[in-house]
Design brief:
The structure holds three protein chains of three kinds.
Chain A: H1 9-15, H2 34-54, H3 63-87, H4 93-132, H5 139-145, H6 176-199, H7 203-235, H8 242-274, H9 284-309
Chain B: H1 2-10, H2 14-21, H3 30-34, H4 38-66, H5 77-112, H6 120-139, H7 167-194, H8 207-238, H9 252-269, H10 272-286, H11 293-306, H12 322-334, H13 336-350, H14 359-382, H15 384-390, H16 394-424, H17 430-456, H18 471-500
Helix pairs in contact in B: 4-5, 4-6, 4-18, 5-6, 5-7, 5-16, 6-7, 7-8, 8-9, 8-10, 8-11, 10-13, 10-14, 10-16, 11-13, 13-14, 14-16, 14-17, 16-17, 17-18
Chain C: H1 24-32, H2 34-41, H3 45-54, H4 73-106, H5 122-151, E1 158-165, E2 168-173, E3 178-182, H6 188-191, E4 209-212, E5 217-223, E6 228-232, E7 237-241, E8 247-251, E9 257-263, E10 275-281, H7 283-303, H8 310-324, H9 326-329, H10 347-350, H11 353-362, H12 378-388, H13 402-411
Parallel strand pairs in C: 1-5, 4-10
Antiparallel strand pairs in C: 1-2, 2-3, 5-8, 6-7, 6-9, 9-10
Helix pairs in contact in C: 4-5, 8-12, 12-13
Chain lengths: 310, 536, 413
Amino acid sequence: MATVSHSSDAHDSHDANHNSGDHQSYYVPHQSHWPIVAASGLFLLMFGTGQMINHPDSPLRWLSVVGALIIIWMFFGWFRNVIEESMGGLYDEQMDRSFRWGMGWFIFSEVMFFAAFFGALFYVRQLAVPWLAGDGSNAMTHELLWPDFVAQWPLMTPPDTSAYSGPQQIIDPWHLPLINTVLLVTSSVTLTFAHHALRANKRGALASWLALTLLLGAAFLVIQAEEYVEAYTKLGLTLESGIYGGTFFILTGFHGLHVTMGSIILLVMLLRILKGHFTPQQHFGFEAAAWYWHFVDVVWLGLFLFVYVF
Amino acid sequence: MSDIAQSTSQSPSKSDQSGHDHHGPAKGITRWIYTTNHKDIGTLYLWFSFIMFLTGGCMALVIRSELFQPGLQLVQPEFFNQMTTMHGLIMVFGAVMPAFVGLANWMIPMMVGAPDMALPRMNNLSFWILPFAFAMLLSTLLMEGGGPNFGWTFYAPLSTTYAPPSVTFFIFSVHMMGISSIMGAINVIATILNMRAPGMTLMKMPLFVWTWLITAFLLIAVMPVLAGVITMMLMDIHFGTSFFDAGGGGDPVLFQHLFWFFGHPEVYIMILPAFGIISHIVPAFSRKRLFGYASMVYATASIALLSFIVWAHHMFTVGLPLAGELFFMYSTMLIAVPTGVKVFNWVSTMFRGAMTFETPMLFAIGFIVLFTIGGFSGLMLAISPADFQYHDTYFVVAHFHYVLVPGAVFSIIAGAYYWLPKWTGHMYDECLGKWHFWLSMIGVNLTFFPMHFIGLAGMPRRIPDYALQFADFNMIASIGGFLFGFSQLLFLYIVIKCIRGGKQAEANPWEGAEGLEWEVPSPAPYHTFSTPPEVK
Amino acid sequence: MDTVCKRTQKPCAASMPRSFPVSEDKRFLLLAGDQKAQLFALLLLPLLMLAQLLAAPKAQADWELNMPVGVTEISASVYNLHMTIFWICVVIGLIVFGVMFWSILHHRKSRGAKAASFHESTFVEILWTVIPLLILVGMAIPATATLRQMYDTSESEVDIQITGYQWKWRYQYLNEEIDFFSNLTTPKEQINNQAEKTENYLLEVDNPLLVPVGQKIRFLLTSNDVIHSWWVPDFAVKKDAIPGFINEAWTKIDKPGIYRGQCAELCGKDHGFMPIVVKAVPPEEYQNWVAEQQAAKAAKTASAAKEWTLEELVAKGEQVYNTACAACHQPNGMGIPGAFPALKDSPLATKDKEGHIRIVLFGKAGTAMAAYGSQFDPVDLAAVITYERNAWGNNTGEMVTPQDIQQHLKAGQ
């Protein structure tokens, strides 16, 4: 029920910076060509990827690369605009809050994206697999369709063994995944140290802690890649190995993708810090990156528990 | 590189910026492509949505023509299925949702006294993704094997193992629509939570703003789930997983659970802003304050929360366990309570008012009556044992068209008439507006009311040909469909006429209308509320 | 079997001889560019509709308005639930709309009405929250009772497994070892408006499901491909057939008769053309029918051993093809480009005999091509493969015998 008022405090505090006659405190950019660049880049990426999947020989598949390059270019340009505006003093506290709300709700949307996959995981573990083995009111499912099927999790033998061969083995949670858990949790801690250093204006410590965070993130990704190679080459755990493989790879895969994106964001932050960006008071770009990283970390804890351990 | 030059030239300084602010729109096509202005973007959304409405409408007319008589006359079943699928997808994602986002863009900043949306550049991106996404979706119709033919609900495995190859592009286009919706919703939430004029507490917000706040929350909560489920489809189709295949330990019904976890809130995404619009129009033309403002807010919030726990009522026949069936039946029935509160409040607002019946009010009254009829059939559908008879018949088709066409679409049209003077500075042609209302009203009822009967009598939905006992009502529905469809061209004419000229509109052309949007001149200046107003 | 006439797919123009005369040789072109041709043809749509209205053959039709009461105890209670909730809605609607229209008539500005200033009342707001809630509770009680009854599938006397196929139903009587498919029999001429439509247009099949009255029958529903839904309104039974799972439903029919229904879940191209016909007969008659079926089955097994000639197999194969294959691969063997491959001149149907037999028996994973080895007996399978290898100019002259099929089935995939 709190009234968000901005004309009095926010407006006044910035009045000093304003040219006379301009009553606007909230910065509204006039025009920008980046959104249409982004939209066309996204279209080319999607369309090209579709071609790559459907017609691997079609030359149109290269549109995906063109689209990806356009999107990268767009990110550079768009964020350069934002950074320049921010450092040019155009943003007030209200703008800062807009960014905070925006980032917060974006992370919420990411939570829901993972919720869909976790939901699928719980559904198959708790309901679908037991039902296929005759649980609940499904006695006849078992008797008529899958008489040899036994419910178990991890599901090593899928109901239809002619179409899907289950994994021979699964990942041992107490080796690589445990190391990864330690790495990622530590990286959240080091990132918090970096943030404290930023607030205390200790630039050297800031850069070192952030670099260490990045290193931990990279190590996580390397180990994750090693785990995938092992799963495919030694354990017979693949996308094709029934529902266990499906849920395992979609959850860890999208998480890995998010760690990759988070690392790139942190790398950009590191480069900006080395260029002298951010002040102890104003550094939402850094904070947003940190929020994202912590979110990715929390998702991992969920994964570690429900994909690997239990 | 040109971008560097561009960004340096744009590299802003305060004096530049204040210069820009008092300018009008840029000239030429770049005004629309590069714009960050909420009014421009609102206009783009509204025109896009109208084009999609006509496109989806043409597909509906193909369907109605084929069903005009028993027997196959115009199209083959596989093409018929593509038409039903595309009609649904285009109307939901291309017509109704963008129309509401367009109205939100135009009106929310003005209603809360903000200079623009919170994140104007992202606002532009949300819009411009849509034409690309729909171009990709429509292009599937020309691909080998045809476009999506598995219904707008695309149940696996019909949409996975048994789908035409173009399903890949269908998936990617829905991904793009999801990205657009999520960004649009984030913008709306940030605007409402952060950009209100001083003094405008949450419980002083206009109801259109309230309903959009809740809608935006629903969008952010469920669009990612849709993205998740179509990603799982993509994996099943191309990468050998078995999420929706029992042979690998998955379950086709899992698809439906995930889809409807998105899909049911989606239904409310398409109706909550409509409640908001009606809650503006009814008081304005009754010249009386809205009855039960607070209970309207609470009812909207309850409907939104309930929407997360009712999804499986779309799946009563899939063989849910008895406990699940009962739970979803009870929770669904509960929705009737807050929805009832809303209808009672509107009627009480009209009661002992001083009413006039300009076109927006006519459409609003049409909305209340016909949406309530849709609500009644919804309540009937909630009764699980009876739903075994209704499910997947024309009774369901009648139900959701009653809540979507005279529901969502009527509210959008009502809102358009209500705000046209503010947008264009001219009054629309009232006489033609009334014609538009009565033709639409007759058309919509001729089309959809008989569907209740053919549904109860046993006609399944999504069939290109039917048994003889359904013939007469189908013929009536087809005639009604053409009447309704062509009446919308009249709407197009009225809008264009209003843009080009007409009686000058005052700042507040409606005697009983209240709100900040009526305090700025008509047409609304390109920039409004650069200085926030004080709300008492 | 010649009553079985699976609806054939012709290009749209062929079904509209009056409006779009297309010569035979152009038909291929139209079929190939089918999708685009249809899109363009639609531009003329309103005109065509008008023409059809004028030339409409008058079809017989009853104006059915309401849900059938049906012929089972459950369907009657569902009907009662439906009518109760319907009348509740009518009463609420009359009150709400009554107040609204009364206000519209009396509280209009043109009649000099002045707006009152009230805008809330906690009492009425609570009242109209609580009263609907009580009505809903009153509704939920009988609904729960009926639902519990519908879910009780125990102690059945006849168990029938129903499997949905694209686009037909298979009925297997679990204890009687009877197993057959049920296909639409409406001739394609009726569907394409070249012949007068008869009474049970689209609601007639070759082999109806035969069940006894007065006995509890349990349906075990599943699917071989996509999700279907088995629905007979007169029993108030509608249950989805989900591939890989068995759903249960039951009925106990009160009076003999023929009851018709349709597939209720979109299942692809011919979703509208896979009706359900149930024939309910007295128990004695049912017993006789069971005995007959079992005798017929024994005779059929014997025929597999017989020596077949090429002509006999081709003739039989054509019937089987039209029942089981023509929906996708088309009666002329051309298929539907992009969706279903052509058989005419295809390497599989002209050269690779082994591959041909295997794909028919075991299907092709990841496509709509089902495994037919378990759906037909060896004679039918041999006949249809022989037909495909000799029809439409695929003149291989080769013959596949029931014995070949049996060998392949024995060897397995």
